[in-house]
Every structure is written in structure tokens, then in C-alpha cells.
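REVIEWER CHECKLIST
Item 1: Sequence provided? yes
Item 2: Single chain? yes
Item 3: Sequence as submitted:
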Amino acid sequence: MPDMVKWFVRISYVYGRLTGILNFEIDLKTGRTRITRKATIYSACANVCLMSLLAHHFWRSNGMAALWSNVSSLHESVFMLVSWMRVSCALAAMASRWHHRRRYMRLISSFRCLFLKNPEVMRLCRRGFVCKCCLAIVAESMQFLLAILMMWDKRTFSLLLGIWGVMTVTAIINVIITQYFFALGNARGHYILINRKLREVLAEAQSLGPKRNRRNGVFVTKCCFLADRLDEIAQTQSELQALIERMSKIYELQVLCLCITYYLTSVANGYILFSIYKYKNMTQNWSKLGLLAGAVFFVFYYADCLINAYNVFYLVEAHQEMHKLLDQRNLFRWGLDERLESAFDSFELSLARKPLNLQCFGLFQLNRSSAYDVGSSILINSVLLIQYDMQNY
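Item 4: Structure as written out by the authors:
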């Protein structure tokens, strides 16, 4: 399993370099980052070529419009809106990568140093990493196969280039999501280790006998030892939270673009599913392989969405679990030494003063409550779109 994780990390790195979204080099053995002329020139050329392909595809090609020639014009409008938004979000993400290139490099170095301190974190995260990569690979492969099968009868060299450009946009989005997933998963793994150490300190502190004599050398020595361990835990947590907040600032624009893409795509997919049921001729030219590819893509796409969302939820909940663990101190039957009491108080005050809030430009927070609101909004807008179709077509 660890070798598989390394293999997926290498694939993600190569994928990022090929698509041009990663505009610097990373030594996968040492984790060191560097800006080279070769990486800069290639990334710039890849970005320019992608923009040229997309411009030609959307302005000169009529192949995509021909897909909806046998149904209402509303389908074409919805499809084009989602396509334009996906492309716009991908281009905005590419611009952000150039603007924050050095900050990305420092961020990768910081996560590398954090990993070297606790290599055990990979064991805690590897299952999620492998599952994420498998879901993304299958979903992207099915989307590419579906696009080829749908356009096979209308295939031209220009249209194939357009499909290649659209799939490159999908690849860019997947690379960004995968990198963000790896970073958050790594942080969650460190939180799991911190909480495990905190439980050990709490268990040892609770096992201490009554403090009948403050001059008891064994008692005081044990409390000072636990206080030092608690201070070390608090320092590690503070550094980890600062790193997470710095990463959130760097990824802020990209996270917003990804949320918009997911939102519009989900609304459009709800409407498309209804349309397939209503317009029987919509899929009459599809082969069985095309229908199978579409169904598999739909399942794996939303499985990938769910695992991305839960990766964020689990990180927030791991931080909240730390608060619950510290609350157990109030259940101790015996008083502790002043040094250990002070360490607990300092840790609790630090967590209360700096809560972990994963925000996006202050518009919303990344948590379960926001996800529920977004899901409700997607459902409502899908129903409104379906009602509009039933009334006017």
C-alpha cells in the first residue's frame, strides 16, 4: 500500500507537469522544489496552447451544439453555461498558480518537513489517498470515453482537438483537487497523531494519585514531565494550524472555482437526468457502451465529490475532537500541580483564541452545515430548471 501511494503521488506530479498546472520542479526523493527555465517555458507554452484550443473549440466549432439538435435549446444553453464556467474556473486556477508560485513551493517544503517529523502519518492517510486517486482516474477515464463515443459519428480533427482541450481542463481541475486532498489528508493525519498523544497525557494525568503533599518529589516530577509533553503537543498543533491556514489562503481562489464548478455541474446533471427520462430520443443514438460509460462516470464522479467533501469534514472534526479531549480535564478527581494546570490552561486558551475555520473569501465555511445548505440549493435549482422545461418545452 505505501508503494501504491508513492506511485499515485508520482502520477499526480507527472500529470501536473504535463498539463502545465505545476510550473516548477519537485525532487520526489528529497521533496525539494526549484524554479527552472525548462519548467517555466513548458508550463507557459502548455497554458497558451490550452487557451488557443479552447478558444477555437468554443468559437469556431459547431460540434457541441449538434449534440443537442434533437432536443430543446435549453439543454444547449445549460451545457454551454457549465462548460464556460468550468473553463473560466480552470483558467483562473492557472493564473493563481503563476501568481502564488513561490508560495506553493514554500508550502510543499513545509508539508515535507512536517512529514519527516512524523512519517507515521502516511500509514494513517494511505487508504484515503489510494481511494481518492482510483475514483478520480476511473471518473476521468469514463468521461473521456463518453465524450469520444458521443462525438464518434461527427468526428473531425478540429472536434477531436476541442475534446482534448476540454479533457485537459478536467485534468487540471482533478490535479488541483488531488493536491488539495493530499494536503488536507496529511494535516488530518497529523491531527490524529496529536490527539493520540493528548489522550496518553490525559490518561497519565488522570492516573496520578491525590496531591496530598505538594512537596512530593515523584508527583511534582511526573506533573512537570507531563506539562513538557503537553507544551510540545500544543506547539505542534499551533504550527500545524498555521500551516493549514496558510494553505487555505493560497488555495482560496481555486477552492471557490471548484465549488462553483461542482455546484453548476450538479444542477445541470439533475436536469440532464430528467431530460433523459423525458426526451426518449436524447440517447437513442447512444451505444450500450456509451450508456454504461455514462452511468459509471456518474457514480464515480459523485463518489469522488463525496470523498473530497468528507476529507474536509474529517479535518475539522479532528480539530473539534481536541477540544473535547481537553474538556475531560474537568473530570479529574484530584488536583494537579500548578505547572501542569498552567500547561492545560495555556493550551485551551490558545485553541479558543485561534479556532480553525476553513473559509473561502469570507463567503462561506467549509463544513457539514455549509455542505447541507449547498445540497439543498442544488436540489431547489434543479427542480426550478425542470419546472421551467416542463412549462416552456
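Item 5: Key structural point noted by reviewer: Strands lie at 25-26, 33-34, 359-360, 364-365.
Item 6: Recommendation: ____
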